[in-house]
Design brief:
Blueprint (H helix, E strand, L loop, with lengths): L1 H23 L3 H6 L1 E6 L2 E2 L3 E3 L6 E2 L1 H13 L2 E6 L2 H9 L5 E2 L13 E9 L1 E6 L16 E5 L4 H12 L9 E5 L2 H9 L5 E5 L3 H7 L4 E4 L6 E8 L3 H17 L1 H8 L11 E2 L2 E2 L2
Parallel strand pairs: 1-5, 1-6, 9-10, 9-11
Antiparallel strand pairs: 2-3, 3-4, 7-13, 7-14, 8-11, 8-12, 14-15
Helix pairs in contact: 1-8, 3-8, 3-9
C-alpha cells in the first residue's frame, strides 16, 4: 500500500513538474497576466456553440482550450470574434491565439503557425428525403450546393467540380456562398439548395440533434487538419502550447475530450505543426 502511495505521489510530482516547465516557457506577457486571450466564434457545433438552455459556451474546442490552459497554469479568456475578424485580431495582438475550428491551410501559413489537433474534410450532404438522387457523387454536377463563404469550402468545391464535372463534360457545380453553415442548412431545408458542404467532424453531431433531417453523401472529398493558430512571430507561445498538447496526447486527456464529443475517429496521433508531424 505504501509503495503504491509513493508511486502515485511520484507520478503526480512528475506531472506537476512537466506542467511547470510548460508554464515557464510561456511569453512574459502571458505569465504576467496569467491569461491567454483566445478568438472563437461559437457557431460550429460540436466544436464550439452556446448551450441552448444556459447560453454557456461549450464544445470540443472549449474543453480542449481549457485543458491546455490548465496544463500551462493559466486561464483562457474566450473572445467572441467573427470568423473574418479572427486573423486580424491575432496579427495585431488583440488575441493571443485562435481556437475555433480553423483549418490549417497552406495559404494561411504565410502569416500563421498551427498546432494541429483534429482531422477533418469537406463533406457533401443533403436532405434525407433526397439521398437516393445522389447515389453517385457525380449526380451533384449542375446542382446548387451551398457552403459558408467564410471558409475554404467554396474554393474546394470549385476544384472538385472542375475535376469531377467540367473535365468530364458535365455541367459545373453551382457553388452558393452562404452566411455560415447554419444558413446553408436553412437554405437546404427550404429546398433552395440541392446539397451543402460542411466539415466532416460536425455532421454526426448535427444529424444526432436533427434526426432524420440530413443524409451524408459519400466520403469527404478533401483532407485537412483543424489547428490552433498563432501569429508567425509568436513561436514562444506556439511551442508552449505544443508541449502542453503533447502532454495531453500522452496522458489520455486529449483522447477523453474527443470521446466526450464522439469524435475519437478524428484524432491526431502525434504532435503536428503546420501539417507536418514532429518527432
Amino acid at each position: 500500500m505504501l509503495k503504491s502511495t509513493l508511486l502515485a505521489a511520484s507520478a503526480a510530482a512528475l506531472l506537476a513538474s512537466v506542467s511547470a516547465v510548460s508554464a515557464q516557457a510561456l511569453p512574459a506577457r502571458i505569465l504576467d497576466k496569467k491569461t491567454i486571450a483566445v478568438a472563437n466564434v461559437p457557431n460550429y457545433p460540436p466544436l464550439e456553440f452556446k448551450d441552448p438552455k444556459t447560453g454557456t459556451l461549450t464544445g470540443l474546442d472549449i474543453d480542449l482550450g481549457n485543458a491546455l490552459a490548465k496544463k500551462l497554469g493559466v486561464e483562457i479568456k474566450w473572445e467572441e470574434i467573427s470568423f473574418e475578424g479572427m486573423i486580424p485580431a491575432l496579427t495585431t495582438g488583440r488575441v493571443d491565439m485562435i481556437l475555433s475550428g480553423m483549418s490549417d491551410l497552406p495559404a494561411r501559413r504565410e502569416t500563421l503557425d498551427f498546432v494541429d489537433y483534429l482531422a477533418s474534410g469537406a463533406q457533401f450532404y443533403t436532405n434525407a428525403d433526397r439521398k437516393d438522387e445522389f447515389k453517385d457523387l457525380a449526380a451533384l454536377c449542375g446542382k446548387k450546393v451551398g457552403a459558408s463563404r467564410r471558409t475554404s469550402f467554396p474554393g474546394e468545391m470549385a476544384k472538385w467540380s472542375k475535376e469531377t464535372c467540367e473535365d468530364k463534360g458535365k455541367p459545373a457545380l453551382e457553388v452558393v456562398g452562404t452566411e455560415g453553415s447554419a444558413d446553408a442548412r436553412t437554405q437546404l431545408r427550404q429546398k433552395r439548395l440541392d446539397a451543402a458542404v460542411q466539415g466532416s467532424e460536425t455532421l454526426p453531431y448535427l444529424m444526432d440533434q436533427e434526426k432524420g433531417v440530413y443524409a451524408i453523401l459519400g466520403t469527404p472529398f478533401t483532407t485537412v487538419y483543424q489547428g490552433i493558430a498563432f501569429a508567425k512571430k509568436d513561436t514562444e507561445l506556439r511551442d508552449a502550447v505544443a508541449k502542453a498538447f503533447t502532454e495531453m496526447l500522452a496522458d489520455g486527456s486529449y483522447a477523453a475530450v474527443l470521446k466526450k464529443w464522439e469524435l475519437s475517429e478524428a484524432k491526431v496521433d502525434k504532435l503536428m505543426i503546420n501539417g507536418a508531424a514532429k518527432p
